[in-house]
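Reading group handout, session on sequence-to-structure problems. Before we discuss, look at one worked example. The prompt was deliberately terse, the way you'd type it at a terminal:

> structure Oxidoreductase

The input record follows.
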Amino acid sequence: MHAWPSLTLFSAAAFSNLPGWPMPQYPGYPPASHVIDYLEHYERRYDLPVRRPVHVRSVSHDGGMFFLDSTVGQFTADHVVAATGTWSAPFVPHYPGTFRGRQWHSSTYPGPEPFRGAKVAVVGGANSGAQIAADLLVTSEVTWFTLERPRWMPDDVDGRDLFLRSRRRILGGDSGPNLGDIVALPHLRELRDSGPLSATPIFDSLSELDHDHLIWCTGFRPALGPFRHLMRGREPAVKNLYLVGYGNWTGDGSATLMGVGPFAKHTARVVAGRVDEARQHEF
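And the output record:
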């Protein structure tokens, strides 16, 4: 699992469960290490046939079958569920000019220690930008750049509220007004209210920056590499290819630990139904 050391969930453990077995309780907001431990135990508990490390180089489709080429061999399949996420497809916007320091993305952020004593520019007006800027305040001279003034969610809102709003949208209900872009975790609120965590309007050119490091906290795109040619826009172009966990592409909240469950269950039911239908046609 990829995560920087100080990363935490935005909601309590009770609202971050996978089907069948709840995440162990944790006071406050669980850190990445708690989530990783939960996922490892979940895998062992259900004896899930996970193979790692495996890199799928390509997925082709011919005659109603899928052909997968990977670092551990070649496979064929009647159905393929694409759940590659977004982490391996970080997005960096284009800006004119030249930055002479080292550039990073939030996906490669190693924690604050390598930046000790340095000038660091953090770009991004959502959760990762706020969290990483706050993380670096102890060790570095930080400038937090945002395109617009940061939109903080109300202090009493966390991931639980966002999950419930997502469910209402999925069910066709009114989810209410947009609450903002940044969950005001307790340590972020303290730094925001006391002054150190404040944003600076975004630069026009990279050449304006005299920082040692530039960290892009500008999000991700769906990592569709092995099967992009089997897509038509955001939809599969071939039958029996399914997408799960790509955010708004595949359902509001589907890219979150607490929200992916209903979408995964739906996909599993569709696959099982088509497998049963194919078997019946064989007899």
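Points for discussion. First: The chain has a mean pLDDT of 90. Second: The chain has three domains: 1-50, 55-88+223-248+259-282, 102-216.
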